[in-house]
């Protein structure tokens, strides 16, 4: 398990580095593709196979809109997002109208489909905004490193030192010690790589940035754990050996990205 986890990371890191450094259409394509793959995993969990009829239409519509959302954000910022969501909601609600009287789950089907668009492509699209800004590549690298360090720090601290449960009703394996270890790793990594990537930044704001990102990442992790628990699955997929699926790997980043963008434009 641990070996697979590290091998996957070693293979993924140079690929991600090159794609982030390239920027432009290459980075946009990366985020659009990852959004679609992650959303597919989400829909597989909330609409278990066989996805026939209405559910299949919902999945296809969502997967088509995922790259549209990412491209729209890159081109026009956050402005078009409410319109895209509204169109999706109207279409999906209209499709479910014939079954509303006979299926008590119909409103939940609509909610699950729309939530997927908010949860994954919309949150990931903040990475596009960060990359498009000043020193965008450096900020993306800093964000990815801080999130990854927190995840790794929490995993190993919790594995070897964890004694007190953090949220046993959501994720029985997560511990307070693991959480604190993750936050410590967030701050240390933020400070170290700040000196390499963005040496002009003041130390105190970077510490605050790392802590906020770390807390957001842990909340995102717990949210994904609760989602998977309610869906009756352990991992969202198997595409990343040692990590599970894309949603398993990106759960912290999904919640951290919007806050990273807001902090970047408001504090730094």
Automatic annotation (TrEMBL):
Protein known as: Phosphatidate cytidylyltransferase
Q: Which family does the similarity line name?
A: Belongs to the CDS family.
Q: Which GO terms describe its molecular function?
A: phosphatidate cytidylyltransferase activity
State which Enzyme Commission number(s) the record gives. 2.7.7.41
Which gene codes for it?
Answer: cdsA
Kindly state a single biological-process term from the GO annotations of this entry. Answer: CDP-diacylglycerol biosynthetic process
Record's bilayer topology term: Multi-pass membrane protein
Q: Where in the cell is it found?
A: Cell membrane
- Can you quote a single GO CC term? plasma membrane
Where is it mainly found? membrane
So, what pathway does this thing act in?
Phospholipid metabolism; CDP-diacylglycerol biosynthesis; CDP-diacylglycerol from sn-glycerol 3-phosphate: step 3/3; Lipid metabolism
Record InterPro entries = PC_trans (IPR000374)
Q: Which reaction equations make up its catalytic activity?
A: a 1,2-diacyl-sn-glycero-3-phosphate + CTP + H(+) = a CDP-1,2-diacyl-sn-glycerol + diphosphate
Entry's transmembrane regions: 6-37, 57-77, 83-102, 114-133, 139-159, 204-224
Matching entries from PROSITE patterns are given as: CDS
For this UniProt record, give its keywords in alphabetical order, as a comma-separated list: Cell membrane, Lipid biosynthesis, Lipid metabolism, Membrane, Nucleotidyltransferase, Phospholipid biosynthesis, Phospholipid metabolism, Transferase, Transmembrane, Transmembrane helix
State the Pfam families in the record. Answer: CTP_transf_1
